[in-house]
Amino acid sequence: MVTLKLQGDNTALTHACRGNDFTTVSILLSAGAHPNVCNKAGQTPLLLAVRKNNMAIVRELVNARVDVDHMYQNGLSSLMLCCVEGNSEMANLLLEAQADTDLQQSSTGYTALMFACKGGHLDTVIGHMEHGANSAIKNQEGMTASDVASVNEFPDLCAVINLMGPPPTVMQDEIIEHPDTPLMKEAVDEVIKRFHAQMDHVPVISIYDSDKQVALRVPKQHFKRHIKLFNLN
C-alpha cells in the first residue's frame, strides 16, 4: 500500500520528496516504500529530492538503496543534473554513493564530467576526477571533457583534468610545460590544496614551481608522473 500509485502515477513517497517532507520520507521508506518508482513524467523520488537540493532526503534514499544511476526521459542521470546546475555538494554525495561517472546522455553523448566542464564548475570537476571519472570518453561530436572545457574557454578545468587524469604514454620523468597564466596557477593550487592533508601519508611525487623556488609534494595516486611547472605567476 505504501507504494500505491495515485494521480499521474505519483506515490506518497513522490509527494513527500516534492514537498521536502523528510519525516514522511523516512517513515515511508521504513515501511517498505519503493524508492525507484517513476511517475508519468519520468520523475523518481531521487530526482525530485536532487532538484529540491535536499541533502537529507537524498541521503535517506541512498540508504534505502535507491538507483542513483536511473536515467530520466531527457537522458540525464541525477549526477548529470547536479553537474548541469553546478551543485558540487550534491554531486559529491552521489559520487560517494557510487554513482556512475561515465554514463552518457543518449542524445549528446555527454557524461556528467562533460556537463561540469561545459558550465565551468571547478569543484564538481575535481570531485569527479577524484572519483575516477574517465576523462577520455568522447561525446557524439568526438570531444572529450577537456575538449568541452577548452571550447567553453575554461583552461583551468583543462589543467585539472590533465593533472588528475591518467598519464599519457610517455616516460615517467617527462617534463610537462603549462602556459604561464593565472588561471593555470589557480587550478594547480586548488588541486594541491585538496590533497594537502594526505601528503604525509601516501607516496608522493614533486611539482616544481620555479617562481616560488619550491617543490610541492603531491600524492602519487593522483599525479602519476613527475611534473614540473614553469613560471607560474
From TrEMBL:
<dbReference type="Pfam" id="PF12796">
    <property type="entry name" value="Ank_2"/>
</dbReference>
<feature type="repeat" description="ANK">
    <location>
        <begin position="108"/>
        <end position="140"/>
    </location>
</feature>
<dbReference type="InterPro" id="IPR002110">
    <property type="entry name" value="Ankyrin_rpt"/>
</dbReference>
<feature type="repeat" description="ANK">
    <location>
        <begin position="74"/>
        <end position="106"/>
    </location>
</feature>
<dbReference type="InterPro" id="IPR036770">
    <property type="entry name" value="Ankyrin_rpt-contain_sf"/>
</dbReference>
<feature type="repeat" description="ANK">
    <location>
        <begin position="41"/>
        <end position="73"/>
    </location>
</feature>
<keyword id="KW-0040">ANK repeat</keyword>
<protein>
    <submittedName>
        <fullName>Ankyrin repeat and SAM domain-containing protein 3</fullName>
    </submittedName>
</protein>
<dbReference type="GO" id="GO:0085020">
    <property type="term" value="P:protein K6-linked ubiquitination"/>
</dbReference>
<keyword id="KW-0677">Repeat</keyword>
<dbReference type="GO" id="GO:0004842">
    <property type="term" value="F:ubiquitin-protein transferase activity"/>
</dbReference>
